[in-house]
Design a protein that fits this description.
Length: 153
Amino acid sequence: MARGFSELRLEQTDDLLREWKRLRTASAPQGGWVRAIRESLGMTTGQLAARLGVTQQAIVELEKNEAKGKITLESLGRLANALGCRVVYALIPGKSLAEIRRDRARTIAEKQLRRVSHSMKLEDQSVDAREEQRQLERLIRGLLQGSPKQLWD
C-alpha cells in the first residue's frame, strides 16, 4: 500500500508541476520583479516605502536583494502585497519527477552492474552487450519497485 501511495504522490506532483514547465526558461527582469512591477505601476520607491512603513533606502536595498536572489520570502511577500500582488513559490524540475527517479535508479544500477561485470570479466565469464542491457533494465525495474528512499542514500 505504501508503494502505491508513493507512486500516486509522484504522479500528482508531476501533474501539478506540468503547469509550471513553461516557466522553466523564463527569467526575471534585470532589475528584479519588484522594481519592474513598481515601475510599471508608476510607483516611486518613496511611495512603496510609505505603503510598507519603511524608508526609501530600505526599498532600494530590498529591490537590489531581490534582483540578486538574496531576499527572504517574507520580505518578498510584504513587497508583493504592497504592490497588489502575491508571491507564488515553486521548484520547477528540468524533467518529470518520474524521469528524475528513473535516472537515479539507472545510475545506481549501472554502478552495480559495473562491479559485477568487472568480476565476471576477471573470471572470463563476461556477457554480451545485449544481455548486459537486459540485466541493466532488470536492475532498474527492481530499484524502481522498491522504496524510493533507497535511491537517495
